[in-house]
Amino acid sequence: MKKKKKTDLQQSIMEEKNDIETSTGDSKFTLLDVIRIIGGLLLLNAFLSWWFTSTGTWGYDGKWLDIRYLQFQLRRDYVNLTSDELKLYNGKNPKYPIYLAINGKVYDVTYGRDIYGPNGPYEFFSGRDSARAFVTGCFDKPDEFTHDLRGLDQEEAMHDITSWQRFFENHPHYWYAGIVTHKPIEKDIPSPCEHKKFPGYHVRNT
Ligand SMILES: *[C@@H]1O[C@H](CO)[C@@H](O)[C@H](O)[C@H]1NC(C)=O
């Protein structure tokens, strides 16, 4: 009698154990499992990326990895500057981003500090709207660095300006940052310069 009771007890313990085993065995994915799988895939992705491209991002090195661009995309805080305010962003103050402008549109070129910052080969574009110089290409003539487009072939000018704007907008490291507004122009039209891109320019404007 006593023995039977014991086997009954053993039996019920066994059954309970089986119940526990089957209930855990066919349980659904837990959150932890999902995290493990995603983690594993990320690790595999990183490993393959390193293997094939020696980078963790399949060779991508553009502005979407730039923390400043991500913040800008998140906040969408486009600037609205006057030409005087724009001067502050010429790269002289390392705390400020570097901006250049083309016909009222401002571009963030901070990534290119070596090019657009102090002593860079194109530092003359920074902190101002040089729409005219972008059209004429006359970089050795200081009065070309203006948004003043008077006297130029307007169709040519707009064509050039649009394509330069597109260049900075679609650049892997630069982006459109907002607008700059100018006071009305009071100076004389800049004198014609030797037009580097369009040989006909000089003839048409004299
Ligand atoms: C930019 O600022 C000027 C002056 O503060 C304002 O008149 C204008 O509406 C603003 N433009 C935009 C697009 O916010």
From TrEMBL:
<feature type="transmembrane region" description="Helical">
    <location>
        <begin position="34"/>
        <end position="52"/>
    </location>
</feature>
<keyword id="KW-0472">Membrane</keyword>
<keyword id="KW-0812">Transmembrane</keyword>
<feature type="domain" description="Cytochrome b5 heme-binding">
    <location>
        <begin position="81"/>
        <end position="181"/>
    </location>
</feature>
<comment type="similarity">
    <text>Belongs to the cytochrome b5 family. MAPR subfamily.</text>
</comment>
<dbReference type="InterPro" id="IPR036400">
    <property type="entry name" value="Cyt_B5-like_heme/steroid_sf"/>
</dbReference>
<dbReference type="InterPro" id="IPR001199">
    <property type="entry name" value="Cyt_B5-like_heme/steroid-bd"/>
</dbReference>
<dbReference type="GO" id="GO:0012505">
    <property type="term" value="C:endomembrane system"/>
</dbReference>
<dbReference type="GO" id="GO:0016020">
    <property type="term" value="C:membrane"/>
</dbReference>
<dbReference type="InterPro" id="IPR050577">
    <property type="entry name" value="MAPR/NEUFC/NENF-like"/>
</dbReference>
<protein>
    <submittedName>
        <fullName>Piso0_003922 protein</fullName>
    </submittedName>
</protein>
<keyword id="KW-1133">Transmembrane helix</keyword>
<dbReference type="Pfam" id="PF00173">
    <property type="entry name" value="Cyt-b5"/>
</dbReference>
